[in-house]
Amino acid sequence: MNGAANTNRGTTMNGNTSWLSLLTLMLGLTLAGCGGDSGSDGGATPSPTPNQPEEEEPDRFTEGRTFLIEPGEGATEDMVNAMIQLRPRDTLEFACGYFNLDQGLLIQATEDVLIKGCGKDETVLSFRDSANVTGLEALNVRGITVRDLTILDSPGDAFKLKGVKWGTLSNVRAIWSGGGGPITEDNYPQRLNVACTAPPFNEGDPANSAGASQTGKGKVQEDGGVKNGANMMTCLGALEFCYGDTGFLLAMPRQGLGNAAIAAVATDEQLERFKGKWAAMAITEPGAGSDSAAIRTTAKEDGDHYVLNGEKIYVTSGERADCVVVWASLDPKLGRAAIKSFVVEWGTPGMELARLEKKLGIRASDTAAITFNDCRVPKENLLGNPEVDTKGFGGVMETFDNTRPLVACFALGVAKASLERTRELLSEAIEYDYGKPVDNAGAAEAELYRMEAEWEAAYWLAMKAAWMADNKQSNSVEASISKAKAGRVGNYVTLKCVELAGSIGYTEDELLEKWARDSKILDIFEGTQQIQKLIIARRVLGLSSKELK
After folding, report:
1. In this structure, is residue 409 part of a structural domain?
2. Which of 357, 431, 526, 547 is catalytic?
3. 510 within some domain
4. pTM confidence score
5. Is residue 157 part of a domain?
6. pLDDT classification of 194: cutoffs 50, 70, 90
7. In this predicted model, what pLDDT tens digit does every residue of 205-226 receive, in sequence order?
8. CB 320 within 8 A of CB 251
9. Is residue 96 a part of any domain in this protein?
10. 3-class SS at 95?
11. Cβ distance 415 to 519 under 8 Å?
């Protein structure tokens, strides 16, 4: 058991190739839920076999039976014996109580097994003193169900499923003691009673998405402070989520650019009508990527409808979303003044999913190509003012001033995870000393200091841009600066960490290679480096888009 390898931290429910396991904190938030326990199915302890001498202790670990583990000093040994003998369709049951286990739970090379407790508040498996990194790991298993228990203080991932054909996690919790002191056998009934926390932009209300509609609406208090800080809150939340998995964050319903665009320009009636909808954003077209004003998708007025024709690519969550905010031109000859956004719900005739992209990173999030062939959209689904002017286009573009710091924090989260993991991997070789001149440090140590400094600079630029949005200040320049800086820093840090980690950095034994892959898109979408620099130059020099291209 001590030799269990710390393989790629991936999870798969329906394939042989694992992707990334969820950030253990996300597992705790996502799987624990706020409902009650499902309780226990029960399970009897196997009785002694007929041939067994009466003076011997009954063998509780007989193939094909329920293996019952009781709390106490012998719990780890009993668990290990059960794991060794586990066969298809066996059940490994942990009784109610607190288990202090000094080895991880490894299930491998079997099928259709059940691991259960008697409720996530009643059965607690503590791995604080475990010699293994993972709490519960399933390796090359064809079917596993884990339910009704809590994994506590795992040194690494709480749950890890690798090479699992299918698996189910039901009514389980992953939790760490944190700053309030350790969770122990004496206090766990009270300490496990924690409130569920919802992602700050996952309420289903377009008005709360990415803090977009909150810009300029902060309530100024008597002392001059701002009561709400929607942008700041969202940015900090996104940073922590992306510390684990950017793709997972992007795949979460009811957040993102589509909902933010609705919040920015929709009427009160539209805000109410589209409340609760998960909206993707469709801007990019073949041949019209960074230049949003060059789109060629058309919207022709026809009675009570607009008829859309065109193709959109790189639509994040395009397949899973309830609807798509589509940018289209009422008259391509009029340029950006004629560009409007339309809410098109899936199921509308003429709207078809062309394909799903196979990507370098963020594989948990779908990226779609969508075609529109004589797609009839009700007039009331045009967002904002139907008149041809630049105000409507500019209003939607202002959405990016709020979401660019958000994407910057995506990159900061990934970079932070890479930095901290690299420091851990090099901790035996480097004795960190921030008091000495960097010129006196070794090459690897000095590189880590430089990366930390770059990360810190990018972090405060993003915080400034978000703070300005919350304080009703124009932040177009600062938003672009933060996105350009953080996108570049994210790429630099994650790739350099792969390099510093040596051979292990290039393998799937560590998450460094995955974080490097995920970080690349963060320097591209929401405006590339080149676009951000162009925006900054225009604002600083006071030139229009026609004057500076």
Report:
1. no
2. 526
3. no
4. 0.63
5. yes
6. low
7. 444 444 344 444 444 555 655 5
8. yes
9. yes
10. coil
11. yes
